[in-house]
Amino acid sequence: MNRNEELENLHTWAERLRADNASLGGLLDAFEPLFTELAKTRAALRAAGMTPVEPDAQRLSRGLPRFVDAPLGDYALAFLASARRMLPVMAQSFPGVSEELRRLMYALESDAMDPAALMEALIQGDEAALERVRPKEVGVRTLTLAATLVLRPVLEVVGVEVARAATLGAWGRGYCPVCGALPGLAILSSSGQDDPYLKKHGGQRWLHCSQCASRWRFKRHACPHCGNEEHGTLEYFHPREHTEQRADLCRKCNHYLATCDASGATEEPVPDVAALGLLPMDMVMQRDGFTPVARTAWNKLAP
């Protein structure tokens, strides 16, 4: 799929969601421009000569994500290029933090902030390191959201072969093989085969990274948060009117993963749009005391 087809597909699925649930229109108005710019930025980075890294079979076999604990100085210029594209769009989508975003861009442009240190702190989930690099005028929540969006197209370009190799080699972990983050979404796609990654000839379960959007196969009957596979402690919930929407629940760790069941669909949904469409179910799950496997920009419903 080329960039124009990708953007058209994104718009088509967004319009379908608007028609299906008018209450999500405001959320789509904010996020669709960001999703569009992510695709354009990814294409621009590729056009500028950025290429995927080679998978490290030894790291994958040991369950080590490619960019966790890796120095990221080589990607500082790409991160800056992504920031120049993403932050202005984010400022339009979220005018309440536009001044913080302007100050963040200034810090990056003026060399007052080290992009490599920011990327490394984000991937490692090091809150203390994030606090050290954070400009004092930028809140930590704004910094985390902005930096995640800016970093995503960089990791999408350089990590695509790693994610592919992880799936071919049966990665089998609930965290991302590229950046180590947990999934924010699962999509069930059609398949006529049966193996540990399927259940009763059901669809393949693809996990989608909450940080870098990489995807990888995972067992159908297992919790990606704690690894639990005990029968009777894993359940799923879906609203009666939307059987393609579900939440996979783990009673052992009390986490859930929003899931789009596309196993009977003729075309696979756009993951970002599908995740927004599952927000009403996120609200139900969190109201009932469950915690999402990964916090995202749209499912942080509780303080």
Structural commentary:
It is built from 10 helices and 7 strands. It has 303 residues and is of the alpha/beta class. Strands 1, 2, 3, 4, 5, 6 and 7 form a 7-stranded mixed beta sheet that branches. A hairpin with a 4-residue loop joins β5 and β6 (255-262). α1 (3-20) packs antiparallel against α2 (25-47), α2 (25-47) packs antiparallel against α4 and α2 packs across α8 (140-168).
Structural class, judged by helices and strands? alpha/beta
Share of residues in strands: 5-15%
Number of strands: 7
**What string, H for helix and E for strand, traces the elements in order?**
HHHHHHHHEEEEEEHHE
Query: Total number of helical segments?
Result: 10
Oligomer: single chain
Low-confidence stretches: none
**What characterizes the major β-sheet?**
7 strands, mixed
Cα-atom Rg, whole angstroms? 19 Å
- Helix content bin: 40-55%
Q: What distance separates the N and C termini? A: 39 Å
Principal-axes geometry comes out as: globular
**Average residue pLDDT:** 91
Strand-helix topology:
Blueprint: H1 3-20, H2 25-47, H3 57-61, H4 76-93, H5 98-109, H6 115-124, H7 127-133, H8 140-168, E1 183-189, E2 204-209, E3 215-218, E4 234-237, E5 245-250, E6 255-262, H9 271-277, H10 279-287, E7 291-292
Parallel strand pairs: 1-6, 6-7
Antiparallel strand pairs: 1-2, 2-3, 4-5, 5-6
Helix pairs in contact: 1-2, 2-4, 2-8, 4-5, 4-8, 6-7
Entry keywords:
303 residues; alpha/beta; 7-stranded mixed sheet
